[in-house]
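Budget justification aside, the reviewers requested a transparent look at the raw inputs and outputs of the sequence design task funded under Objective 1. We therefore reproduce one unedited record. The lines immediately below are the structure tokens for a 374-residue chain.
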């Protein structure tokens, strides 16, 4: 059986080693603060202050009304440009939308000739381009209909759709982006820290010192797992309270201790995976390449970036073997919906089982690696 005293003291050694590494320390600090805040604030799914320019070749009261209907917060104040400058401003990325109102537009509208307004869209701003085009069409149709009738008419539909938005009534995308980025950071850093700790031992030659001591591979592995998991867990708790709840203003609907327990189980899986990758990789560049092949797909296909149900069925079945898939479900259920343990216990059980498999496989590979080096 592993000696708990050896595991504790080896773990303290790992914490001291991490403390003396300023690069990793600063990276941890920035990851759990700046990166999460930027992901929450920057990855907005709503149309906000989209830059738009207008080419007004009609210069009529109706065209002026259409220009004045595009105002903040959806759009920036429209700027009037000439037709020859359309390609130039779009190539420079100054505007997401350039709307061209043709000559005699007002006269053709009154004569019911159905003139067309040209809308040029910079689709490199994908989210704003998709949403903004629909917004512009709806705004212009409403303004033109009101201008022709002399009043704003409200069409009575035979069926009324009553919307009831639960868990996020204001549809604030910052709440979603911040929590999903926290999950990505937890996954990435737990793997990096444990893998880097093992590689650092090998590069500095201290792994040979450990091999001549009365230590077992399980004790060495346990010490790295609990030390790095503790660092990520504490940073996650602070980030949840001070960044997500504080700076991003997200209300936490469920039990924070239950989410912390889920995070601890998740760290058991990911730190074990980090030991495995750190054993297979011999240098930090090799570890980085392995992370691109394993960690990036885990983050992108776990349901945090895109809905899990919208992916192909084959991918869904494959991703059931990834702990991030179940951790995303737990986080969304607890933090957004206020779910209790009776709802998420199957995901808890799966994460623990996956962690046990990862830990056993990592321990087996680690023992063989130490035997070969000794």
């Amino acid at each position: 059986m592993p000696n708990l005293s050896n595991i504790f003291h080896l773990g303290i050694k790992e914490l001291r080693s991490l403390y003396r590494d300023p690069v990793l320390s600063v990276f941890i600090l920035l990851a759990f603060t700046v990166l999460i805040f930027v992901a929450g604030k920057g990855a907005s799914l709503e149309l906000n202050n989209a830059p738009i320019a207008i080419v007004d070749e009609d210069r009529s009261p109706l065209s002026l009304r259409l220009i004045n209907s595009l105002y903040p917060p959806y759009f920036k104040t429209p700027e009037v440009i000439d037709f020859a400058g359309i390609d130039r401003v779009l190539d420079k990325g100054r505007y997401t939308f350039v709307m061209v109102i043709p000559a005699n537009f007002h006269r053709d509208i009154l004569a019911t000739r159905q003139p067309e307004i040209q809308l040029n869209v910079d689709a490199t701003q994908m989210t704003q381009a998709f949403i903004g085009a629909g917004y512009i069409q709806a705004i212009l149709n409403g303004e033109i209909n009101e201008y022709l009738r002399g009043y704003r008419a409200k069409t009575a539909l035979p069926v009324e759709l009553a919307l009831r938005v639960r868990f996020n009534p204001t549809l604030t995308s910052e709440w979603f982006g911040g929590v999903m980025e926290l999950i990505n950071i937890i996954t990435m850093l737990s793997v990096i820290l444990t893998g880097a700790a093992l590689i650092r031992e090998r590069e500095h030659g201290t792994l040979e010192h450990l091999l001549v001591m009365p230590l077992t591979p399980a004790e060495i592995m346990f010490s790295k797992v609990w030390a790095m998991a503790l660092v990520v867990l504490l940073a996650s708790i602070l980030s949840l309270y001070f960044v997500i709840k504080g700076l991003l203003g997200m209300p936490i609907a469920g039990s924070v201790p239950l989410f912390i327990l889920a995070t601890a189980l998740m760290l058991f899986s990911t730190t074990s995976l980090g030991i495995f990758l750190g054993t297979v990789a011999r240098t930090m560049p090799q570890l980085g390449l392995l992370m691109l092949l394993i960690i990036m797909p885990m983050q992108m296909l776990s349901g945090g970036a895109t809905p899990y149900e919208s992916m192909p069925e084959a991918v869904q079945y494959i991703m059931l073997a990834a702990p991030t898939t179940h951790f995303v479900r737990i986080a969304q259920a607890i933090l957004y919906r206020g779910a209790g343990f009776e709802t998420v216990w199957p995901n808890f059980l799966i994460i623990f089982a996956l962690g046990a498999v990862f830990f056993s496989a990592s321990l087996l590979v680690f023992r063989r690696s130490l035997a070969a080096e000794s």
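The first strand starts at residue 52 and ends at 56. The chain has 14 helices and four strands. Computational costs for records of this kind are itemized in the attached budget.
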